[in-house]
Amino acid sequence: MNEQLLTFLIPIAGALALAYAFVRAQWVGKQDVGTERMAEIANDIAEGAQAFLRREYRVLSVFVVAVAALLAFANMGRADSSPLIALSFIVGAFCSALAGFIGMRVATKANVRTTNAARTGLGQALNVAFAGGLVMGLSVVGLGILGLGVLFIVYQGMFLDASTTATLAESIGTVINVLAGFSLGASSIALFARVGGGIYTKAADVGADLAGKVYEGIPEDDPRNPATIADNVGDNVGDVAGMGADLFESYVGSIIGTMVLGAAFIPTLAAEGGMPLGAVLLPLVLAGVGIVVSIIGSFFVKVKEGGNPQRGLNIGEFGAAAIMAVLSFFIISFMLPAQFSAETPIVGAFDYTSLKVFFAVVIGLAAGTAIGLITEYYTATHTKPVTGIARQSITGSATNIISGLGVGMYSTGGPTLVLVLAIIGSYSFAGLYGIAIAALGMLSVTGIQLAVDAYGPISDNAGGIAEMAELPPEVRERTDTLDAVGNTTAAIGKGFAIGSAALTALALFAAFMQQAGIEAINVANPIILSGVLLGAMLPFVFSAMAMNAVGRAAGDMIKEVGRQFAEIPGLREGTAKADHKRCVDISTAAAIREMVLPGLLAVTVPVIIGFIDKNMLGGLLVGVTVSGVLMAIFQSNAGGAWDNAKKRIEGGVTFDGVTYGKGTDVHKAAVVGDTVGDPLKDTSGPSLNILVKLIAVVALVIAPLIA
Amino acid sequence: MNEQLLTFLIPIAGALALAYAFVRAQWVGKQDVGTERMAEIANDIAEGAQAFLRREYRVLSVFVVAVAALLAFANMGRADSSPLIALSFIVGAFCSALAGFIGMRVATKANVRTTNAARTGLGQALNVAFAGGLVMGLSVVGLGILGLGVLFIVYQGMFLDASTTATLAESIGTVINVLAGFSLGASSIALFARVGGGIYTKAADVGADLAGKVYEGIPEDDPRNPATIADNVGDNVGDVAGMGADLFESYVGSIIGTMVLGAAFIPTLAAEGGMPLGAVLLPLVLAGVGIVVSIIGSFFVKVKEGGNPQRGLNIGEFGAAAIMAVLSFFIISFMLPAQFSAETPIVGAFDYTSLKVFFAVVIGLAAGTAIGLITEYYTATHTKPVTGIARQSITGSATNIISGLGVGMYSTGGPTLVLVLAIIGSYSFAGLYGIAIAALGMLSVTGIQLAVDAYGPISDNAGGIAEMAELPPEVRERTDTLDAVGNTTAAIGKGFAIGSAALTALALFAAFMQQAGIEAINVANPIILSGVLLGAMLPFVFSAMAMNAVGRAAGDMIKEVGRQFAEIPGLREGTAKADHKRCVDISTAAAIREMVLPGLLAVTVPVIIGFIDKNMLGGLLVGVTVSGVLMAIFQSNAGGAWDNAKKRIEGGVTFDGVTYGKGTDVHKAAVVGDTVGDPLKDTSGPSLNILVKLIAVVALVIAPLIA
Question: CB B423 to CB A526 under 8 A?
Fold first, then answer.
C-alpha cells in the first residue's frame, strides 16, 4: 500500500462515519415520540435550540467572512502559504458548525424518544439515547477527517513538488500551512459555540432556579415556570452542540499539530527509503482507523432489562480504546521505520523507533485514563472530597463554598503530576512528536467517547421532558438511572478532554515555534516573561467575562419570569400558559451578545502580541496554556464536586448520627454551591480548554507571517 | 565618603529605627488603659497572642535548627560559600520572628489604649493607633537593615579579598551567597507566620460568626460568645504579626536580590574608577535612607478634632514616597557613574546610566501606586464592581458568590498590565538590575507603609474591645472611623506588596540564574515546561491547603462553642463566664498543626526539583511566580470586594427604588460572600505573596550547590 492510496482512504473513513451516523439518525427519527404533550414540549425545545443556532451562526458568519478576508490578504503572494488558507478556514468553520448542528438536531429528536422508550423499559431507552450520542460523535470525527482529508488531497495536488526530497519537504510545509486554516476555523467556532452555549444554558438554568427562590409560589422546576423550556434548550445548545464543537477542535488541532511536527521528518524518512510522509500521515491514519474502531465499539453498548447500563458503556468505550492501542502498534510499525535518527528544530538530534512512538500513544491513553480517574475521585457522589463538602454544608453555604473551592484547587495537583509525567515520558520516547502523538492517542476514539458524553445530556433532557409532560415517576427514575451511570464514563471522557487539550496545546506550541523559526524561548528575558504573565492572566479575565455574562443574563431571566407571573392572569394557578418563547429569546440574545467580547479577545490578543514580538507570543502561549489548564481543572472539578455534594445530600446522608436530606437547611446550603458551580463547570471551565488551543492555533496560523 | 564608611552607616540606620521604635513603644505603654473591664479584655487578648507566638516559635525553632544544620552541611568546604550561611539563616529567622513579636506586643498594648483614647476624641486615638503601627513598621525595617548590615560587615571582614578586581568580585559573590541565608530565614519564618496566623485568625473569625448561626440564641459578636477573644487574638497574630513577617521578607528579599545582580557590575565599576561596590551597596543605602524618610513622614500623621484622619495618613505615606523619590535621584547619582557599559550574565552587553537606574526606581513607585489604585477600584465600598456584587446579592448568596468570583478574576487584568509595563520599562532602562531596583523602590519606605497597614487592625481591635467592654456607642463610631479611613491607604499598601512581590521574585529568579550559572531557560524544552506547569500548580494546592485548614479549624471552634453553651450553666443567660481560653487553645493548636504541611511543601519542592534538574527549577520559579501573583490578586480582591459589598449593604443601598440594609435577606446573602472571602483574602491570598518569594529564595540559596 503506498502513500497515495492511504491518502485517499482517509476521507473515505470520514465518509463512512457520516454514512453510519446518517443511518443511526434515521433510526432515531423512526422511534415513537409518545404523547401529544411530549411531542409539543420536544418541539418547543427543538425550535428553541434551532433558533439559537441560526442566530449564532448568522453572527459568526460575519466573523468568518472578516477573518477569511484578512487571512487571504495576509497570505497573498507568499511562497510558503497561499490565500487558500481562507478556504481552509471557511471549510473548518463550516464543518465545526455543521457538526454542532447535526449533533443538536439529533439530540433534540433523541431526547423525547428516550423518554418514550423509558415508559416501557431501560434497555430501549439506552439504545435511543446512545444512538443520539453516537450520531453526534461520528459526525464530529467524520466531518473532521473528511474535511482535513479532502483539503489535504486538493492542496497536495496544487502545491506538491516531489522532484527532490528538499522540495517535497518544503511543499508539504506549504500544504500544512494552508491546511492549518481549517484548525483555526474549527477552533474559533468552537470557542464561540462553547462560550455562547455555556452562557445560554447557565443563564436559563440559574435563572429558572433562582426565579423559584425570588418569587414566592413558583417552584423551581415546575412546568408553569416560563424558563423551563429555555433551560432544556440550554442543555442541548450548551452540553451537546458546545461539547461537539469543543471536541471537534481538539481533534483537528491535535491532528494538525502532529502533522506540522511530522513534516520535519520528511528528509530522514525519505533517506531511510520508507514512506517520506509517514510521520505526516500517521495522525490522519490513526484518526481514520479510530473511526472504524469507534463504530465497532458502539455495537457493544447494550443493556439487558434489569442489567446495569454502566457495563455496556464501559465495554464500548474501554474496549474501543484497547483495540485502538493494539491496532496503533501495527499502524505505527507499518508507517514508520523500526529505527531512524533525525535532527529536527528545537529537539535537535534524536534517535526514534516506531516502538517508542507507539509507547507515546500508550502514555497518552494511560494519562487520559489516570486524569479521568482522579477527576472522578474529586467529583463523584460517594468519594471523600464530595462527602467533605456535604459535611461542610451543615454549617451553611459559606463553608460549603469554601470547601468546594478548596476541593477544586486541590484537585489540580494530581492531574498536573500526571501531565508532567506524560509530557516528560512521551518526550523522552519520541521528542516533541511524541507529545503530539500522545495527544492524538487520547483523541483517536473520540467518536465513541463523545457518544458517551452526549448521551448524558440527552438522558437528562429526557428526564426533564418526563417531568414536564407529567409522566408517571418510574419514567423519570429510568432516565435518572441512565443519566447517573453515564457519569463515571463521562468523567473519564473529561480527563481525556483536559489531558488532550494540554498536550495538543503543547504540540501546537512546538509547531508554532517550528513554523515561526524560533529556536528557543528564554523566559529569563523579561519581555518573554511578560508574555508568560500576560498569557497566564487571560484565563482569569476570560473566566470572569463568562461568569459575569451568566450573572447578567440570569438576572434578565429572573425579571422576565417575574413579569410573566405578574402580567399573565392564571399563570400561577396553572390555567394559563407561560410565554416560553420570550425566555428562550432572552437567553438567546444574551448568549449571542456576551460571547462576542471574550471570543474576540482570544483571537486578537495573540495577533497583537505576535506582531509586537514573536518571542513574547511564545511566552504568551506558555502562560495561557499552563494557567488555562489549571483554571479549567479547578473550575470543572469544583463545579462537579458541588453538584454531587448536593446530590449526595438529596440521597440522604448521615453525619454524627443526624441524617440530612432534601429540603433541609443543609440541602439549601448545598444548592448554593451547586448554583455557584454551574457557570464554573459548564461555561468558563470548558471554554478554557478551547481558549488555550485557539490561541495556539492563531499563533500557528500567523507564524509564517511573523517568522 | 568612601564605601567603608557607607557600609558602617547602614546598620546605624537600622539601629536608629529600633531606637525610635523603642521610644514610641514606651510612649504607647504610658497611655491609660481605661476601665478594669477593658484592661481585663486586653490582657486576655495579649496573653492569647503571646501564647500563640510562643508555641509557634517553639515549633519553628525545630525547623530552623534542622534547616541550619542542613545548610551548614551542604556548604561545608565550598570556596564560593561557607557553613556560616547557617548563621545567616538563624539570624534572619530570629530577626523575622522578633519583628513579628515586637509588632504583636505593641499592637496588643495599643489596641486598648486606642479604645480608651477614643472615649475622649478622635485625634489622640489616631496618635495611639498609628504609634502602635509605627513601632511595628520601624521594627521590621530596623531589624532587616541592622541584621543585613552587621552580617555584611562581618562577612566582608572574613571573606573580602580586594587584591585585584577579580578577587574582589569573587569574594563579594561569596559574601552575598552566605548572606542569602538571612533572606531564607526571613522568608521561611514569614511563610509559617502568615499561614499559621492566617489560619488562626480566620478559624476564630469564621468559627465565631458561624457559631452564632448554628446555635440559636448566640449572637455573632456577643461578649458571651466564647470565641470572641480568639477572634481578637487572631487579628493580632494574623493581620499584625503575619503582615510584619510578610513585609520583612519582601524587604530583605528585594535587597538581597538587588545585591546579587549588583555584584555583576563590580569589574565595570572598578574600571570606571567609582565605587566598585556601588551597585551592591545601593539597595542597602536606599533602604537605610528610607528609614530616615519614614520617620520624618511619621511626624505628618496627625488629625485635628473633627478633621479627616485620611489626610494625615496620606500626607505621611505619599509625602515619604515623594521625598524618597527625590532623594534616590541624588543617592544613585552619587553611588553610580553617570554612564557605564557592562556585560552581565543573562542581559549581556548593556549601556547603563545613573539616570536610567533612577527612572527604574520611579517606575517601581508609579507601578505600586497604580496597582494600589486599581485594587481600590475593585474593592472599595462605593465603586462599580462592589456595587455590582451588592446588587447581585438581591437574588441570593449564589449570585453574590458568582459575581464576587468574577470581580476577583477580572481584577487580575489591570495589575498584570501594569506589572508587564513596569517589567519591560525598568528592564529597558537598566536591565535586570532595573527590575530589582524597581522592586526596591516600592519597598524603600516600608517603614511608614507598614505603620499605616498595621494601624488598621489596631483600630479594628480597639473597636472590638469597645464592644466587649460595652462602652458607649460613640467610642465604637470613632474607632470605626479610624479603621475605615485607613482602607484606601491600606489598598495602596497592598498594591505595593503585590507589585514588589512580583518584581522581587523576578529579581531573585534572575539572581538564581546568575548564581546557578544558567544562561537561558528555554520553555520549548518539555522538561522545563513541565517545571512551569508544576510551579503554576503549587499556588492552587497551597491555597487549597490553607482554605481547608481554615474550614477544619472553624469546625472545631463551632463545636467547642456549642459544647460550652451546653455544659456551662448560665452562659446563655450571661450570668456565667465563657471559657475563652479553650477557644484560644483550639485556634492555636489548629494553626500550628495546619501550617506545617504547606510550609514544608514550599521549602522542599524547589530543593527536590533543583537537584533533579536545575533548568526545571528555573521553569518552576517562572510558573509559581506567574500563577502565584495572579492567584494572590484574584483571592485578595475577591475577598476585599465581598467584604465591602457587605459593608455597602449595611450602610443601606437602593436598587430599583428598594432600599436594602442590615438584617435583610440581601444582607444575609452578602454575609455569605464575606465569610467565603475571609480565608481567601486573609489566609491563602497573602500567603501566596510569600510563597513565590520563598521558593525563589530557596532556589537562590541552593544555586551554588546545583550550579
Answer: yes
